[in-house]
Structure formats: C-alpha cells, structure tokens
Write a structure and sequence with these properties.
With 284 residues, the protein is an alpha/beta fold. It has one domain: TIM Barrel. The protein has 12 helices and 10 strands. The strands form 2 sheets. The chain has an 8-stranded parallel barrel with strand order 1-4-5-6-7-8-9-10, surrounded by 5 helices. Helix 2 runs parallel beside helix 6 and helix 4 crosses helix 5. The longest helix has 20 residues. It starts with 9 loop residues before the first helix and ends with a helix.
C-alpha cells in the first residue's frame, strides 16, 4: 500500500511542491555532499525528545507557531525565545517549532532561538520531502523531525525515517487515517518512533477527537505483537483545548499532547499552558 500524488489533499500538494522548490534552491547554494560534510563534523548530542515524553505523566509538546494557512497570523507579538522559556517554566516536556516560511510564516532561526533559550528537546515542525531537509534539521539542532504520512510515499518515508534515526533524531510519524496508520506500521520499530494521531481531516479541516481514540486502539493492537518492553509513544494532535479534553485522553491511556494554537492565540503562551495543567490537576 502506498500513496500517490492524487491521494494527497490539495493543500498538501501545494506545500509539497513548494518544499521541492525550496530544496532545489538550497542545493544550488550548498550541495548535498557539502551539507553531509558539515553534519559529519558536528557532534552535538541530541536532547532526547522521545525520552522526555516517556518520563512525563502528562507530556505536553508546546508549539511555537506564528501563523497558519487557515487562520493567518495567530500571534502578533511573536517571540520564539521568550515563548520557549515560558513553556519550559510552565511544565512542557518538549517544544515544536514551525520553520515553514511560505505557509506558516516560520523560519529556521526560530528553532535556533528556541534551542538557545531552553534545555527542552525540540521538534522541527516542517514538511519533510527530501533527505537534504533531514541533514538541515540535524545541523539546526533539532532533536526530532516530523514525517507526515499523507504527503510521502512509502519509499520516501522509509528513506527519511532511516536517515533520521541514523543521525540520532527521534521521529514523529503523523497519521490522520487508518490507511496512513497501516502504512506507518511498515516502518521499522524503534525507540525513536513517536506516533502522532492528528484529529484534523485534511480534506474538510474538521477536527474530531474520536480519531485519536479509534486509531489508538488499532495502533496498540498492532504493536502489541512486537514483544518489546517499550510502550508505544502516542501523541494526540489538534483539537485539545481544555482540561476536559486532556482528561478524556488520559482516560483512554493517551498521555501525550501536541498543542499549539490554543496557547499561541494568547498574549502569554506559557501562562496558558500553566493554566491548562492546573485545571487537570484540580480535577483529579
């Protein structure tokens, strides 16, 4: 089972086309071989994104995101380093930083700013379509990269997954549907794997938390045959707005959450995270 260009939602088709052009332009400035040479010379250890989630009772991946294609600018007082510090003080386990320029008004420098401002492990949130981007992510200091099953074919996702793990980075494997989950399960099992279930339908943009609950059961059953002591890491993405949403997921043994817009639409994202966690604790 694989994905074809016609299967990719139109919004992702546009983004993927842009990414291909971005990589082409970057290769003209710095060749892949020269980029690899820089990676070889770099020996900075990774911060352990998956490990940080494993030690958390409630693992929050707090996102630093300025804008989105559907909402436009979300945070008008955008300050990546400050937000990273706020999130760390508020109890986030990890950070996610948008680096896509054309659609999310992100930038590579935002990840570097966050890395220098905090000790938290960081996910480079971008649309990976080429090995060039994996090497770039490593040099930026990313501890984890995102592979979106909806915009990669099987050959691509296996190649990018293998390289990321070879370089010591963790991998957030994002799925939206049962068919994407089945394809994700063909990837080699690894302690570096994190399975992100996105509750947003990419065709309608509707959000339904039941997506996580349904796909989680299939994922757990499929991975149970692996005879490993490592519990699969499952992250629910999109639509987590309240302590009630957190409690719902916890009641179904989902302990990890990627939350962005809910925090970023406020003037103080760290305070929003702190309030959310306080609400969960007050209800226990």
């Amino acid at each position: 089972m694989t994905t074809t260009h016609s299967d990719i939602p139109s919004v992702l088709q546009r983004i993927v086309a842009t990414k291909i052009e971005e990589v082409k332009a970057a290769r003209e400035i710095l060749s892949l071989e020269d980029l690899k040479a820089q990676v070889t010379a770099d020996n900075k250890p990774r911060r352990g994104f998956a490990a940080a989630l494993r030690t958390a009772d409630i693992g929050i991946i707090a996102e630093i995101k300025k804008a989105s294609p559907s909402k436009g600018i979300i945070n008008h007082n955008f300050a990546p380093a400050l937000f990273a510090q706020q999130y760390e003080q508020a109890g986030a386990s990890c950070l996610s930083v948008l680096t896509d320029r054309d659609y999310f008004q992100g930038d590579d420098s935002y990840l570097l700013q966050a890395t220098n401002a905090t000790s938290l492990p960081i996910l480079r949130k971008d649309f990976m379509v080429d090995v060039y981007q994996i090497y770039q992510s490593y040099l930026m200091g990313a501890d984890c990269i995102l592979l979106i099953m909806a915009c990669l074919d099987d050959t691509q996702v296996h190649e990018l997954h293998a390289l990321s793990i070879e370089l010591g980075m963790d991998v957030l494997i994002e799925i939206h549907t049962k068919s994407e989950l089945e394809r994700a399960l063909t990837l080699p099992r690894s302690a570096h794997n994190i399975y992100g279930i996105n509750n947003r339908d990419l065709n309608t943009f509707d959000v339904d938390l039941q997506t996580t609950l349904d796909l989680k059961n299939i994922l757990i059953e499929a991975l149970a045959v692996d005879n490993t002591t490592l519990k699969p890491l499952i992250v629910t993405e999109s639509g987590i707005h309240s302590s009630d949403d957190i409690r719902l997921m916890l009641s179904h043994d989902i302990q990890h959450f990627l939350i962005g817009e809910q925090f970023m639409k406020t003037d103080h994202p760290g305070q929003a995270l702190q309030s959310l966690l306080a609400g969960v604790a007050a209800d226990e």
